[in-house]
Amino acid sequence: MNAAALPIGTFPTTVSTGRRKLVNVRQRTLLVAKLRTLWVLGVFALVGVGALGRIGYLGATGVTTHRGELGDALIPDRGEIVDRNGVPLARDFRVYSLWFNPKAMVEGSPLIHTPDEIADGLVRIFPDLDRGEVIARLASGKAGYLRKSILPEEANKVHALGEPALEYPRETTRFYPQGSLAAHVLGYVDSYGKGQVGMEEAFDKQLTSTAGRTDPSVLSIDFRVQSALEDELSKAMVLSRAKGAGGVVLDVDTGEVLALASLPSFDPNHVKPDDMMVSDAEARKGEVPHGFNRVTNQVYELGSTFKPITVAAALDAGTITDLGRRWPAKPLHVARFTIHDDEDLGPSLNVPEALIHSSNIVTAQIADELGGVRMKKTMETLGMNERPAIELPARGFPIWPSGKWPRLRTMTVSFGHGIAVTPLHLAGAYAALVNGGIWRPATLKKLDPADVPAGRRVFSAATSARIRQLLRMIVEYGTGRKADAPGFRIGGKTGSAEKPGVGGYRRHALITTFAAVFPMDEPRYVVVAMMDEPQGTPATSYQRTAAWNAAPAVGRLVPRIGPLLGIMPDETRDIDISDLKPLIPQEVSKANGE
């Protein structure tokens, strides 16, 4: 058929059908493409909505996601501990160890060289190794550590010995960058990875949690203040030939511990068995291991440092209304006992004179008028009937007389005998004496201002103000004179007490203490320094009391730490004690060289 034969208006069916198919294919392709695009956009939208929802949930609940194997590999097994300024005190550290593996060689002898040859090579690398012990270990054929924590260059030298049985696996160890500094605060980590003794034990769960491993645990300790405290206590020990010492620096308004030291100390990087225990014979002699915390775990009769507490309780109770009132100062006979002073202080003393000269006789009479019920209540409110309030696991329980206190007990407690507490108890009590009368628990955690506990009232603000004056007078005119540091306005009280022993008190074994506060016009910090069995030496003018060993240590310490804590010396400032000076005219005259 040709084109001329087709009717007008008719098209060839073959051409029409082909075009229609092509159009349909194109439309279907575009539709599929659009659907696929919509699916992709839908998936992205769902993922985005899910992610936003997850972020919102985590932000609202604080729940952290699991980091997975890669994330876990990037964070330490145990979190870092830092001081209040971020200085590292404890952290995990990757090290090599020297391990003897007798099964390193599948066949034949476990060693290529003889034990003697290997021991000689190891001693050249590690001179402090015991050659005999190394030979015995290698000859025994038992696997085990020959040395822990070796340097990479030492591992290379071991490799050069050419002994397959000597391996040096890479391990994680706990490292204390500051050595023995703050050892009793930090504690250590044992071979099983568990924290022991100090904040390593107290924070064990926190340090091994995901959050604790990621973010450092911040202590209230100031590395610089801690270093100065340990240094001055060490000097005082040497100068007085004391067997031990302890000290604490405490913020009077928050209870934060800026420094806490117990000497002798130990190195948490290399803890030895005798650091944590003593023999039975040593224990019977009253010896304690180096790891024992004298500040929080050992209780002592702290002597005359209790006298300002007694006076504060009497002022609050209203049994003292006139500081100029005079009290008899002759030996006081109570039942079968006699209370006396170390020297004759004259026929009578007023309250400022009694504190300046540290009179047991007058303080006992003040406590007698106060009464046992009120005296005991004051001590309980200061927390002296319970373990010290702090996070450390090592906290000693006071020797606390239960029941109703008889007259003699009340008197002896007033000057620090018949009750035994820790130096940390004393620091907390002095903070309450000077900060307006509020007792707060001590803490080794750095606190935000909003987290400072309200505490509990022990003394009135008026009593606290008066005690600040009296403490300053003791340092200016009394037994605390050797603690005075120009411009730092230190106040405080000395205390010397005989140590109890078998059959009674040991007259030649003293615990000497100086409890101080600075600056007295605006109290910021309590400093307590304690010496265990100091001796009379040329450096202490052959005296053993706190005035000659503990007080001078504080006098040297405060000028070192004051500027670090923002307290600069200023000899134009001081607490006003002009209304009390007329009560001690002789002492003022002596101080003025008249």
TrEMBL record:
The keyword Nucleus does not apply. The chain crosses the membrane at residues 38-57. It is found in: Membrane. Residues 76-212 form the Penicillin-binding protein dimerisation domain. Residues 247-545 form the Penicillin-binding protein transpeptidase domain. InterPro entries: Beta-lactam/transpept, Beta-lactam/transpept-like, PBP_dimer, PBP_dimer_sf, PCN-bd_Tpept. Keywords: Carboxypeptidase, Hydrolase, Membrane, Protease, Transmembrane, Transmembrane helix. PANTHER family: PEPTIDOGLYCAN D,D-TRANSPEPTIDASE, PEPTIDOGLYCAN D,D-TRANSPEPTIDASE FTSI. This is Penicillin-binding protein 2. It comes from Novosphingobium mangrovi.
